Amino acid sequence: MPRGARLDAPGTLHHVMVRGIEGNSIVFDDADRAFFVSRMGKIATATATKIYAWALMTNHAHILLRSGAAGLSTFMRKLLTCYAAGFNRTHNRHGHLFQNRYKSIVCEEEPYFLRLVSYIHLNPLRAGLVGSVEELERYRWSGHAAVMSRIRYEWQDREYVLGYFGERESSARKAYLEFVTTESGVGSQPELTGGGLIRSIGGWSEVKSLRQRGEKQFSDERILGSGDFVREILDEAEDSVKERLPAVSMEVDAAERLQQACEESGIKVQALQGGSRTRECALLRKKLAVDYVCELGMSYAGAARLLGISGGAVEKIVKRVTGK
User: Fold this and answer.
1) Ramachandran region of residue 70, left (φ > 0), alpha (ψ -120 to 50) or beta?
2) Pick from 263, 269, 275, 282: which is nearest to 308 by CA?
3) 13-190 adopts what CATH topology?
4) Which among 4, 55, 124, 170 could bridge 129 via Cys, Cβ 3.0 to 4.6 Å?
């Protein structure tokens, strides 16, 4: 399947996600983490890229940024190429370190900025790398510590984040912390890791409701925002980008979810798609079937092709779980 074109206008707010190839680690120790963060900061400064939030995990990283004059692609190419070369030298390895394409989502700022900041900064807590929000303040590999003034990075625009919470820094930090603490009790929020109509307007049930009312919304998988925002972004895109639409389809998104879920569960994709009847495979199929149909809006047949079962089996799973 051809790759979707990127939307890369300078000054655009992006949620960027990068993963290790085949789910492998991109950092082995604190020296690697320090090198990644140092490279990110230096390249952000050199390219006038504004970084608002970030989290470096074991096998992936999240960054919320506003691209500079050189655009997102220049920043990411320099960051990933430089880091991978240094990592390979240090660990005497060869070959690709990152998946061949990072994921970037253009985000509408007003409804999503603060949710994205907290979502990204809370990644270490959700992953169990820290045990509490209090511990997260001392965790060096997420931008939360910088916003809370526990560590200073000149390249991280903490002032812009705190500006959402007030003019006085002390009270703004307190309000920010209260917001993050509240958000720590919210679930995984998959809508923040991808665009498209279903995620942008609040789920498949909302999409169906719109259709029943005869209302239409413009959408694109690379953009997280309202229909008007999506149309505005695409209208501003270069002609060469428009010609290559549509962008990444829900099938690509679903395949990425399948790969990640299998990696996290220790299940081989081939086994799940090959009809393995182990309890672990059955449970994962059940979860993915519901996600695909109820969240992504895939057809029963489309979900079945990815899960190695029949469309009828997918329909039964979804109806059993949702009661519909």
Assistant:
1) alpha
2) 275
3) Alpha-Beta Plaits (3.30.70)
4) 124
